[in-house]
């Protein structure tokens, strides 16, 4: 795919797979809106006052139908938007086409190469000479990373005249990042500094990105404010838990059509994502075995009747392996060699390094048979036994299915609001009726009648949000 | 699609969508074999003795990957095979291509018209001048129906010279059946009689077909022996129950991406299929309401914590409606008009007449918006509210997903064996170890050490099987 | 306890533990009536016509609160009743007291010796010189057994003058049976013949008793008609399944207070009782392992995510063992010796011979520590490790708790009616609303609008019932 | 029961129901120890160093078998202990007897009057002239309350000479508290000041007590340090959740023998306790309806397939009502009047004021029928319809059953340790094997190999614990 930006008749930039899918995308966006009461009510409540009027927003987040509704919520509130995906397989091409045609600058397609991926990211961040976006909606932190690495390189260049050297790293993906920055430097040596200057802040959607941000904050490297959206309850305890409970079996079924009942499923990690995955496998009739490092999570698994063992204990008897840890090196090629024929290996945790894809790809004599896109059978030369790897080790729910369903993403995406309000916006759709405290009860338990109902340590991100609200006042 | 038979280089007839998908089909067939230990062990155990040597078998059964493994099991045992699907949407085109290229005469593609459907059925039954098949593998009874109607018409023709008149019926599908028979009559007025003469018997896979057979048997209209495969435990209590538990959510997800958690799902009917569907919806986090006519099934639903109401009670508050009754006129257009916007309506029971598709299609002013194949939004003119109908009211798991998974179909398809043996063949794959009765225990409970373990009334079909075994001896 | 019959002021015979508990029993009977709509509606519907007027009924069935409601239903329909329990631990003394005081002749208390048990059985059968009961309600077949053995002994005595010799058998319980018959012979050498003559038939409640009856029928030894109540759907699929799902954890909790979550529970047998037990343990958070001889049941367990292994595989790692097989010699003393300290061993299947109690009791050096009645810790001399045996190996739900709850027993006990009617009588209590077939639908599926909805092979016992209805006409 | 302190032969004070139950209590304590690996390993690890040597500990916490193991852990670590229960129905008399005989001063029995209850509390706090305990283990905060009220009264007395006037309050329980303080004042006007002086701090076990403490802390009224044990994960997410999941059905079954399957259960509140209760009812086959004030919890309930309505919506159709809110006035007498006959009303939340017991008791013409202790049927005069109230509105799992099982209480009670260590101590018992981070993984996710694995805001109580550890160093 030639990396050339295209333009709509109105002059908006884009690069998508197939613009003819825009009508199909529009139909599915309309279906999704019915399932996303949180975002829709944002439009209704805040649309008239245009709080994002004039704001430039860059998103690096799976370019799905659900994200399309988010993007159009942002534009309905007055923002201009540029978007890329945060995963090479997660774009739904019809969603990208509809948004590119109707609402925002989109650079995303299903099945990007890493080269293409970072080109898209850079395109989404580039708002022209006046600097970058006012806000970034990041998922996994790649947009944030690019700016930080860009600023670092510009500083070195300013001091020493040196440009980044891609060959200075073994990591092939990081080589690409450095190339892009190097190219940028040669056009405008203050490009990323200008972005940093303009940027009010980033909101980060997911555990992995949040961890990166905390690490940068600790070392003083963080260049701009960041909102931890991930840890709001209606995100981490909903999207991670209920979203994965839904989308793990969805991905497995679409990729392999395998019967889950009767199988042994190993879930590596029993955090929120792992809990959702384990629940899905258990209720589908699998026998679930959990691996954990944290004794509390391990004890929770046991209380649900799940067995807690190490991967080594079970590697040769299980049928399905799914990583959910947010850590790397969970399933190594030596594990994979010991698995049963046609064992399924997949990752729903974070990056593809939860699974040792590099070890697998470079294993001497290994043979890759692509059953269909995102479903590969890898055959080891000695045993002639094969394993089935989904989405090349990347997020299988997005690579092999369509990610989380609209309703739960509406909870996640509405989280610029207060947490409890997000939940409240979604109750009506499900026919629920809340009970109201009496004044007397309210006094008795020291909880305001209108909430918040949770103690403060449940709502860590709110202070940050207040800060950003102030920023908004300053900026827009 | 022009209805012309094509031929492979070896001269075998076929008609499929796209022969270039044969390689893809072959890869998925190989995956499925690993999941179908029952069929594979039939090949191992009986392949050498070629018990079906020389037998002609016609199948009218969803032309999926799993069926492909069945077909190749039959050919491995010595049979010649001709095949069509028993549902216009259920063919997997890559499966059909692989079988057409490698193993048997296939006439099937996804998205047949009714005209095409019956043409395929007739092709699969037509083995040339020497009569029809020795055995039929039927699912729903359409192949059986065609022969019975053909014989009936030939008898009338022989007596009166009258050919069938398609305009004598209002039912558009039956008009097609009559046309085909009429055309056949003009070529060979004994065509269906010859089929009847040659035929040893039919094995019927599903509840609906079995009901038809019992009705014919009662009125004396049944022309040849029939094996009720459906009521073997490893079929009805596995395929219907665990298969649908797997494939209902699969179909819903692929067709609509809707979040099931939090929704209200109405399951019409609580037989084996309904039990599987209700379990799937409940464990996915839906609130399930059951409709039933049978008080025993109703009480079973209640014991599982499900609410039992009438469709009228809940039609305006539920999100998902699924029919599983094996009866007709379950969800009528007047029900659909009262549903919530974007309520999902689907059928996993038997024919599309569980849902009043005709009433919907002919409703004045109704507008059909096809989101994607097998997913339509129907908008009523007065309310502007739409409902989403899957697979045009036909079996949604086959129309919108890929039907039951291989493992459970292996149980169903291996049922020319004794029931308990079928189960036994599948235990090893799941790592189970059976306990063995001691002699003393065996005497105590009057159950042979090697089984059968179930009382006789659990195994109604075996006598028929014995009959057919004798037939085999006679024929092959 | 001296075995002397007592009499109420009105002259009715009884022998119970403590008549002062009658008021408490009456209160619980009144509570139970609200939960037993089937029995209550029998009284309402049939009370006025007094169909059992003048009938003598003997019951040998757990003398619980639920049975008390059954007894008073029988008396409300006109019968005279004498009752004993069918298990030495299953009597609820307050229920026995209330019935003895108010309604029927009761001979039962919790914690009978075997000697006492058979004395009670004989008392319940003895209606005086005119012969025995018209009908027997049997559970496990002990009343039926006593008559058969009595008749056999009387025949031998008539021919040879020989009386039964208790020392002719090693089985201590059967020695008691022979003694009782011997004593009876000396009073009236035609006592059991007279019983046989008068008896219209027996209705048998449970799997074990039904098996005995079928065995007797096959050998021609069965002396009178028998109704298989057990195999009506609203009995075996309700009482066995849902009843045990309720009462297994109830018994475990009352006996041991042990936390079920996190434990490994082995369920021996996966029939209806085993399915209920496994479901209870799984949903309580245990990891469940099933042992089975029948491959179909084994495959069902696997489809629910349960592991299927042999007892030997898991004996040293599990925490809870429960037998549900209806067979003997399931858990032997050699198994028990290998168990973890404080492993719990119990039986909910049939007789105490599912567990090798004799092997345990006679194991050299074993020490029994009674924690409380029906909860014993048995310590092996070599390991100093102990296991906890519930209810001395007898039915733990009746021994350690109060048996099945009223609602499910109402289904079981109402089964002199047709099966579907039994279910229908219980729906209102749970707020259910049945759907009604239209005439057109009824024709389409060939099922009468008013039922029966199940095919004939679902209703094996009905013919027998018709027979008995005729008998009733003759007798009463 | 005359309120006279008794003494053991060794001179230790006690007041229990029946000392002859001490042997039975000892047997059950020994069983419980096997289930409480956390406490047992505390003895093993810390017993030799006697860290509590010389410390006086007063406990006000349900005097159950599990608490007995806690008490003996404290004494094994060197402490002297005085104990009372924190609930009038929660004492297990055999546990109290065993502890009184063997280990500590106990003042507790099942079925105390409120007068007796506060007498016991005062006895447990009274260590003689030298002041009170060094540490309090409180559950619900009654011991803490008594000291605070005592100090307040002593201050007023010191300033004004006024003693507390019981008639100054309408609350009958608080009248008793004031009486006791008044009596104390007349003996030693500095009694509670001395207690306050000596006291190092209180550890509080439960949500209600913790709320009271935070309220006191906010107003500056808190007189001594307090450890929030409740909010450690291995307490609130285990005891509240898994404990109640176990003990709600246990209590229901023992109190009423009612079949849960098929019933409609209303759970008021969906916090940790409510989640456990709802899960228990759902898995037992009930249909569960939740009432909530907090939209986040409401949305969680919906995601599990539960209906969220107000109590008013469902009051007349449900069968079981259970309060879990930690708030008051949840089920009022006007609700109870509208309930179905024999609806069950119970509380597992905190105090009996979740249910309007006062409104019920004083309702004109209401009739109380005690079925058995802790199970009352209340009949309203107009409708003649009755409801069944468990444990007089107090914690039904302790009143009607034996409270949480040992294993989960071991988690709760071991929480003077760090949270993750508590979990780790319990894994071995359940056969789990933890995975260990590699150095490389540890760096990647910035989590130490040995933990803690949770972020800081998961462990709020640890700082307090550090504080108390220092105090210990000072004191002992």
From TrEMBL, chains A, B, C, D:
The keyword Ribosomal protein does not apply. One of its GO terms (cellular component) is cytosol. It is an enzyme of class 3 (hydrolase). It catalyses: S-adenosyl-L-homocysteine + H2O = L-homocysteine + adenosine. One of its GO terms (biological process) is S-adenosylmethionine cycle. Pathway: Amino-acid biosynthesis; L-homocysteine biosynthesis; L-homocysteine from S-adenosyl-L-homocysteine: step 1/1. Pfam families: AdoHcyase, AdoHcyase_NAD. Its EC number is 3.13.2.1. Substrate binds at residues 64, 139, 205, 235, 239. Keywords: Hydrolase, NAD, One-carbon metabolism. This is Adenosylhomocysteinase. The lineage of its organism: Eukaryota, Viridiplantae, Streptophyta, Embryophyta, Tracheophyta. The gene is BnaC03g74050D.
């Amino acid at each position: 795919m030639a990396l050339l930006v295209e333009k709509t008749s109105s002059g908006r930039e884009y690069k998508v797979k197939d613009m003819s899918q825009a009508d199909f995308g529009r139909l599915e966006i309309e279906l999704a809106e019915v399932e996303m009461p949180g975002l829709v009510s944002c439009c209704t409540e805040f649309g008239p006052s245009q709080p994002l009027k004039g704001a430039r927003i860059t998103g690096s987040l799976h370019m799905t139908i659900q994200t399309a509704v988010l993007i159009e919520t942002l534009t309905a509130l007055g923002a201009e938007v540029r978007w890329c995906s945060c995963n090479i397989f997660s774009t739904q091409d019809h969603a990208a086409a509809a948004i590119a045609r109707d609402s925002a600058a989109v650079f995303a397609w299903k099945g990007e190469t890493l080269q293409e991926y970072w080109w898209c990211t850079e395109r989404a961040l580039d708002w022209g000479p006046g600097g970058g976006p006012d806000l970034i909606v990041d998922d996994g932190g790649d947009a944030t990373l690019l700016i930080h690495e860009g600023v670092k390189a510009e500083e070195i260049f300013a001091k020493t005249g040196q440009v980044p050297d891609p060959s200075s790293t073994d990591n092939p993906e990081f080589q690409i990042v450095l190339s892009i920055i190097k190219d940028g430097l040669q056009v405008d040596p203050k490009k990323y500094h200008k972005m940093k200057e303009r940027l009010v802040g980033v909101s980060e959607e997911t555990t992995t990105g949040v961890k990166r941000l905390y690490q940068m904050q600790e070392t003083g490297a963080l260049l701009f404010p960041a909102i931890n959206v991930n840890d709001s309850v209606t995100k981490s305890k909903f999207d991670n838990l209920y979203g994965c409970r839904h989308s793990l079996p969805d991905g497995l079924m679409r990729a392999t059509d395998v019967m889950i009942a009767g199988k042994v499923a190993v879930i590596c990690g029993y955090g929120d994502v792992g809990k959702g995955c384990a629940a899905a496998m258990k209720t589908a009739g699998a026998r679930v075995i959990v691996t954990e490092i944290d004794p509390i999570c391990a004890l929770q698994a046991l209380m649900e009747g799940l067995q807690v063992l190490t991967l080594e204990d079970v590697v040769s008897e299980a049928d399905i392996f799914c990583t959910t840890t947010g850590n790397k090196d969970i399933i190594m090629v030596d594990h994979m060699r010991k698995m049963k024929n046609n064992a399924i290996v997949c990752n729903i945790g974070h990056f593809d390094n939860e699974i040792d894809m590099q070890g697998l790809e470079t294993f001497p004599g290994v043979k890759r048979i692509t059953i269909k896109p995102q479903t590969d059978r890898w055959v080891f030369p000695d045993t002639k036994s094969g394993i089935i790897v989904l989405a090349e080790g990347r997020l299988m729910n997005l690579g092999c299915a369509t990610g989380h369903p609209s309703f739960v993403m509406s909870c996640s995406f509405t989280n610029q609001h207060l947490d409890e309000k997000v939940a409240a916006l979604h109750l009506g759709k499900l026919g629920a009726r809340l009970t109201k405290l009496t004044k007397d009860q309210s006094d008795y338990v020291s909880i305001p009648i209108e909430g918040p109902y949770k103690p403060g340590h449940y709502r860590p991100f709110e202070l940050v949000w207040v800060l950003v609200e102030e920023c908004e006042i300053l900026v827009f």
